[in-house]
Amino acid sequence: MTHAPTATDAAPRRGMTLERWHDITYWPLIVASLLFIVAYSWQVIADLQGTAYLVARLVMGITWLVFVVDYLVRLSIAKPRGVWFRRHIFDLLVVSVPALRPLRLLRALTLLHVLQRTAGTALRSRIAIYGIGAAAVLIWIAALAVLESERGAPGANIENFGDAVWWAFVTITTVGYGDFYPVTGWGRFVAVLLMIGGVAVVGVVTATLASWVLERAAQGHEDQEPATRAQFRIIAEKIDELRGAPPGSTPADDEGPVPNGPTPRTS
Q1: Which of 82, 107, 124, 158 is packed most tightly, with the most Cβ within 10 A?
Q2: Is the omega angle on the peptide bond into residue 80 within 30 degrees of 0, that is, cis?
Q3: Share of residues in the chain with pLDDT > 70 (%)
Q4: Percent of the chain having pLDDT more than 90?
Q5: Average pLDDT in the 21-50 region?
Q6: d(Cα 31, Cα 21) in Å, to the nearest integer?
Q7: What b/e sequence results for 195-219 when a residue is b if at least 16 CB atoms lie within 10 Å of its CB, and e otherwise?
Q8: What's phi and psi for 151, nearest 5 deg?
Q9: How high does pLDDT run on average in the chain?
Q10: What is the pLDDT of residues 229-264, one digit of tens each?
Q11: CA 174 → CA 105, 120, 137, 217, distances in Å?
Q12: Is a pLDDT exceeding 90 seen at residue 156?
C-alpha cells in the first residue's frame, strides 16, 4: 500500500547541493581572500608589532576558519566523496597553505567578458586573464612571504618590500640577476615555488598568444582550413535528407540488392 509523499520525504530532495553551496559562498570566499591578502600585506609591509599585529593575525585566522568550513561542508555533501576529494586537491592546499588563499581572487576575474565574440576567443580571454592574474598574485604573495622570512635574518639582503617585489619579478621570469636572493630555508622554498609557477604561467600566456596570432593569420583563408569529421557527418546527413533516405544509409542500401550474376540480355 502506497502513501502520499510527506514533507519529511521531500526534505532530502530539497537538501543542500554543491551547486547551491557554491552560489551561496562564491562572494563571501572572494571577500575572505581579499581580507586575507590585505591583512597579510599590512602585517609584513608595516612590520606590525603589539596590538596591530594581533588584529592582523585575527583577521587572517577568521579567513582561515571560513575556508575550513567551506571545504568541510563541500566534502560532506559531495557524492561520491572520494572522487570529489581527488578532484579538489587544490582546495585542500588553499586550506593548508595560507599563501594560496589569494588565488581565489582569480575566480572573480573570469566575470570579465572581454573580446569574447567566439568560443575560441572566449577561452583564450579566460586563460589570459587567469595567467596574468596568477602572475600578479604570485609576485605579490611571494614578495610578502620572502620578506617576512628574510627580514632580520643573518646575511639577508632582502630587507624591504621594494627589493622583495624586484626579486619576485626576476624570479618568476626565471631571469635571476642574482643581486637579491634568499638565504633562509623558507625563503628558498618560496623561491622554488615561484620559479615553478613562473614557468607554468609564462608557458600558458605564450601558448595563448601564439594561438591568437595563428587565428588572426588564418582570417580570410577559411577555404584552406581542413574539415573535421563532425563537418563531414553534418554534410552526409544533409545529403541523406535531400535523398529522402534514413541518416547513415549508403547509396547501395537505397538501390536494393545487387544481383549476383550478370543481367540476362534480351533479344
Answers
A1: 158
A2: yes
A3: 74
A4: 42
A5: 93
A6: 16
A7: bebbeebeebbeebeeebeeeeeee
A8: -60, 120
A9: 80
A10: 777 788 888 888 887 755 555 554 544 554 555 555
A11: 25, 30, 17, 30
A12: yes
Q: Nine-digit cell at 73?
A: 561542508
Q: Which residue has the cell 549508403?
A: 250
| Cell numbers at 99, concatenated | 599563501
CA within 13 Å, CB half, 103? 18
User: Which residue has cell 549476383?
Assistant: 260
Rounded to the nearest 10°, the torsion over CA 28, 34, 35, 38 is 180
Query: What gap in Å lies between CA 95 and CA 104, rounded to an integer?
Result: 11
CA distance 194 to 237: 52
Calculate the alpha carbon distances from 45 to 42, 168, 183, 207 in Å: 6, 15, 19, 35
> Mapped to the 3 state alphabet, what secondary structure does the chain carry?
CCCCCCHHHHCHHHCCCHHHHHHHHHHHHHHHHHHHHHHHHHHHHCCCCHHHHHHHHHHHHHHHHHHHHHHHHHHHHCCCHHHHHHHCHHHHHHHHCHHHHHHHHHHHHCCCCCCCCCHHHHHHHHHHHHHHHHHHHHHHHHHHHHHHHHCCCCCCCCCCHHHHHHHHHHHHCCCCCCCCCCCCHHHHHHHHHHHHHHHHHHHHHHHHHHHHHHHHHHCCCHHHCCCCHHHHHHHHHHHHHHHCCCCCCCHHHHCCCCCCCCCCCCC
Residues 134 and 103: beta-carbon distance below 8 Å: yes
